[in-house]
Write a structure and sequence with these properties.
Blueprint (H helix, E strand, L loop, with lengths): L4 H4 L33 H17 L6
C-alpha cells in the first residue's frame, strides 16, 4: 500500500533524504551491461554534472 508524501515527510522540518533511481528490464544506467556488452559508464559523469547543476537551482546540498 502506498503512502502519500505528505504523510511521510514533515515539510516544516529540514531533513536528509536518500534518493534512488531504478532501471527496468535489466537496463543498466551506469557500468557494463553484461547482456548487451555495452559500457554505459560515460553516463556517470553526465549524472554527476546534472546533479551539481540542480543543487544550485534548488538550493539543496549534495552529500555523495
Amino acid at each position: 500500500m502506498t503512502i502519500t508524501r505528505s504523510e511521510i515527510f514533515d515539510e516544516s522540518e529540514p531533513g536528509m533524504y536518500h534518493l534512488t533511481a531504478r532501471c527496468v528490464r535489466r537496463a543498466y544506467l551506469c557500468g557494463m551491461d553484461r547482456y548487451s556488452g555495452i559500457d554505459y559508464d560515460y553516463r556517470r559523469v553526465w549524472i554527476e554534472d546534472r546533479l551539481r547543476h540542480l543543487v544550485d537551482a534548488f538550493a539543496i546540498d549534495l552529500l555523495a
